Amino acid sequence: MSPFGHKDQEKQEKNDQWRLALQVEFDRLNSLQLPQLAAEVMRRGFGPGGPGADDEDVTVGQQNTNAGPTAARIAGEFEPSRGFTFPLPLAEDMKLQERIARLVAEGLQELEHASLVRAQMHTASGGMDYATTRRGRAALECGEVEGILAAASA
Asked: 0.90 exceeded by the pTM?
């Protein structure tokens, strides 16, 4: 066997491990009650280190500057790192990524209904993006997100 064949086999094994981890994460998210899912979306999307953590510069729906994170961007926070670019994800992998994004979008809707985030439109992002509200930032800082969501869904 050539050394290239061995490298390709290693990459395929890593890809298979990534795909399995992606499926496990989808199954975990899909099993959560909506308030639990929304709380995780809030923490990963807008908590420390999240793509929407620093929303001081997020604008209210303009052309393309300073948009908040989209559902797809936040969904990326739930996906395991591939750590490689080849082989490319298969169509079924991309469908699974889209299924995770739909779950994240459900969580975002729940957060919006609880007035923890606000949806807006930036034309360059091609869809809705999100920013925290004052209430949402306070809830994150005080660890009250789950309590607010539980009360809102009761």
From this structure: no
Question: What is the distance between the alpha carbons of residues 77 and 142, in angstroms, rounded to a whole number?
Answer: 22
Of the two residues 8 and 49, the one the predictor is more confident about is 49
3-state secondary structure of 12: helix
- Whether the bond between 87 and the residue before it is cis, its omega within 30 degrees of 0, is yes
Cα separation of 7 and 28, whole Å?
A: 31
Give the largest Cα separation in the chain, rounded: 62
Q: Which of 93, 104, 94 is nearest to 129 (CA)?
A: 104
Among residues 131, 132, 149, the alpha carbon closest in space to that of 141 is found at: 132
Interval 23-46: pLDDT, tens: 999 999 999 999 999 999 999 999
